[in-house]
Design brief:
With 452 residues, the chain is α/β, with parallel strands linked by helices. 41% of the residues lie in helices and 16% in strands. It has a domain at 68-108 and 233-444: Rossmann fold, CATH 3.40.50. The strands form 4 sheets. A 7-stranded mixed β-sheet has the order 1-4-5-15-10-11-14, sandwiched between helices. A 4-stranded parallel β-sheet has the order 8-7-6-9, sandwiched between helices. Strands 2-3 form a two-stranded antiparallel sheet. Helix 16 (362-376) packs across helix 17. The longest helix is centred in the C-terminal third of the chain and has 19 residues, at 382-400. The structure holds pyridoxal-5'-phosphate. Residues 109, 111, 138-139, 228, 261-268, 336-337, 381, 383-384, 412-413 line the site of pyridoxal-5'-phosphate.
Length: 452
C-alpha cells in the first residue's frame, strides 16, 4: 500500500498562484496610519524592495518563479506528501488522512519558501541588511539561512518568551550568521518604550514587528521582512498547495477537507489557496479549515476591522480579523500562532465564507501530536499539531456520521526545537488558558477609528 507520494525536481512549480486574480471581491485597500487614506506602492518603498511591493499588489494569476529561486527550492522541494495510514489505524478511522510535510526544509518548516525569494529580491534591489522579527524562531531561522545564501546581514528581534523557551532556535540563527536580540529590546524606541512600562513583558509578535519595522525604516541599507500575513508571503507559499494537488492526483484522490494551522495565515494560504481556486471555479467543493489556539482566537473570536499590524502603530492599517494590536496572548508553546491579527487575504476569504476557522486548547493539541509522533514517527511542531488535532477531530466526526472523508493537512514543521513543550506536556505541566475575553475586549477598544 502506497504511503508516500513523491514528485521530481522538474515538478517544482514554475509559477506561484495569486488568489487575488480569482477572489470574488478585490482586496480591501491598505490605509496610511496617519492620514487614513489608501496608500500606494511608493509608501512601502522604505520597508520593502520594489519587486516584492509589485507582488504585494499584483492581480496577475500566475507569477513566474525565477530559476535562481527554483534551484534553491530544489534543496528540499518538492516536499513529500504522505498517506497517514498508521495514524488512521491508531485512531481507528475509516477516513483517508494525507499530510504534506514541510519540515524537510533546512529551517524545519514552510518558512524558507518565502525567506528565499524575499532575500533574492532584496539582493537584486541592492539592499544589504534585513531586520525582522520571529515568534518561535522558525521564521528567524529561515531568514538567517536566506541571508547566508545571498550575503545579506540579518537582525532578528525574537519574542522574549520564545527567546527563553527555545534557546536552540537562537543558537541556530546565530550559527547561520544572524544577530538575535530578545524583544522588547533596548535597541529601538518601541522596545525601550515597552520596557519602561512593563519591564517583565513576555513580548509578542506585535511588539517585535514594531522593533523590526523601526529598525528598517530608520536605516537606508535595511529592508524589513515579514514571515507571514502579507500577500506576497501567501503567494510564495502556494508552492505547497500546487505540489499537493499533483500529489493528490498521484494518489487518485481529492480532499473533502484541507486543514492548516493559522498564525498569520501563510501555511494555510500555501496549502489552501490552490484548492480554493478549484472551489471558486465551481470545479470541486473542498472545505478549507484554519486552526488556531484558543488563547489567541483571531479568526474565531476577533473582529473584522482595520487595525495596525504591530503594537507601536508603525505599520499601515489593514482590514483583517484582529484581537487588537496591543493584545498580548498567553505564552503558549505554539509561538508561531501568537499573533493578534491575520493575513488580510485569509481574513477576507474567511469573512466571505470561503474558509472556516476552529480553535483548540494546547493540551488536546499535544495529545494528538503525541498520537501522531507514535504512529507516523515524525515529531510535529506545536503549531502544526493544531492541524493534526483538527484532522483527527474531523475523521472521528466523519466516523460518527457514518461517512468516509478524504482529509489533507499541512504538517508545517517539525518539533525538534520544541522539546521543552513536549517535556511540559508529558510531565503534566502544560496549562490551558481560558479564552481571554476581558483582555481582548479591552484591546478592541483601542482599535483605530477609520471609516470601513
Ligand atoms: C510560523 C509557523 C506557523 C504559523 O505561521 P503561518 O503564517 O500561519 O503559517 C505554523 N507552523 C510552523 C511550523 C511555523 O513555523
Amino acid at each position: 500500500m502506497q504511503v508516500k507520494f513523491l514528485l521530481k525536481d522538474s515538478d517544482i512549480p514554475k509559477t506561484w498562484y495569486n488568489i487575488i486574480a480569482d477572489m470574488p471581491k478585490p482586496p480591501e485597500a491598505v490605509l496610511h496610519p496617519g492620514t487614513g487614506k489608501p496608500i500606494g506602492p511608493a509608501d512601502l518603498a522604505p520597508l520593502f524592495p520594489m519587486p516584492l511591493i509589485e507582488q504585494e499588489v499584483s492581480s496577475q494569476r500566475e507569477i513566474p518563479i525565477p530559476d535562481e529561486i527554483r534551484e534553491i527550492y530544489a534543496l528540499w522541494r518538492p516536499t513529500p506528501m504522505f498517506r497517514a495510514r498508521r495514524l488512521e489505524e491508531a485512531i481507528g478511522t475509516k477516513s483517508r488522512i494525507y499530510y504534506k510535510y514541510e519540515g524537510v526544509s533546512p529551517a524545519g518548516s514552510h518558512k524558507p519558501n518565502t525567506s528565499i525569494p524575499q532575500a533574492y529580491y532584496n539582493k537584486m534591489s541592492g539592499r544589504k541588511r534585513i531586520a525582522t522579527e520571529t515568534g518561535a524562531g522558525q521564521w528567524g531561522s529561515a531568514m538567517a539561512i536566506a541571508g547566508a545564501f545571498f550575503g545579506l546581514e540579518v537582525k532578528v528581534y525574537m519574542v522574549k518568551v520564545s527567546y527563553n523557551q527555545k534557546p536552540y532556535r537562537r543558537m541556530l540563527m546565530e550559527a547561520y550568521g544572524a544577530k538575535v536580540v530578545a524583544s522588547p529590546s533596548p535597541d529601538t524606541n518601541s522596545g525601550r518604550g515597552i520596557l519602561a512600562q512593563a519591564p517583565d513583558s513576555p513580548g509578542s509578535l506585535g511588539i517585535a514587528i514594531s522593533e523590526a519595522v523601526e529598525d528598517a525604516a530608520t536605516r537606508e541599507d535595511t529592508s524589513y521582512a515579514l514571515g507571514s500575513v502579507l500577500n506576497h508571503v501567501c503567494l510564495h507559499q502556494t508552492v505547497v498547495g500546487l505540489e499537493a494537488q499533483e500529489q493528490m492526483k498521484l494518489a487518485g484522490d481529492y480532499p473533502d477537507v484541507v486543514i492548516a494551522c493559522c498564525g498569520g495565515g501563510s501555511n494555510l494560504a500555501g496549502i489552501g489557496f490552490p484548492f480554493l481556486r478549484d472551489k471558486i471555479a465551481g470545479k470541486r467543493n473542498p472545505r478549507i479549515v484554519a486552526v488556531e489556539p484558543s488563547s489567541c482566537p483571531t479568526l474565531t473570536k476577533g473582529v473584522y476591522a482595520y487595525d495596525f499590524g504591530d503594537t507601536a502603530q508603525l505599520t499601515p492599517l489593514v482590514k483583517m480579523y484582529t484581537l487588537g494590536h496591543d493584545f498580548v496572548p498567553a505564552g503558549i508553546h505554539a509561538g508561531g500562532l501568537r499573533y493578534h491579527g491575520d493575513s488580510p487575504l485569509v481574513s477576507q476569504l474567511c469573512h466571505e465564507g470561503l474558509l472556516d476557522a476552529q480553535a483548540y486548547n494546547q493540551t488536546v493539541v499535544f495529545q494528538s501530536a503525541v498520537t501522531f509522533a507514535r504512529s507516523e514517527g515524525l515529531l510535529p511542531a506545536p503549531e502544526s499539531s493544531h492541524a493534526i488535532h483538527a484532522a483527527v477531530v474531523e475523521a472521528k466526526q466523519a466516523d460518527q456520521e457514518g461517512k468516509q472523508k478524504t482529509i489533507l493537512f499541512n504538517l508545517s514543521g517539525h518539533g525538534f526545537f520544541d522539546l521543552t513543550a513536549y517535556d511540559d506536556f508529558l510531565n503534566g505541566r502544560l496549562q490551558d488558558y481560558e479564552y481571554p475575553k476581558e483582555k481582548i475586549a479591552e484591546a478592541l477598544h483601542r482599535l483605530p477609528k477609520v471609516g470601513a
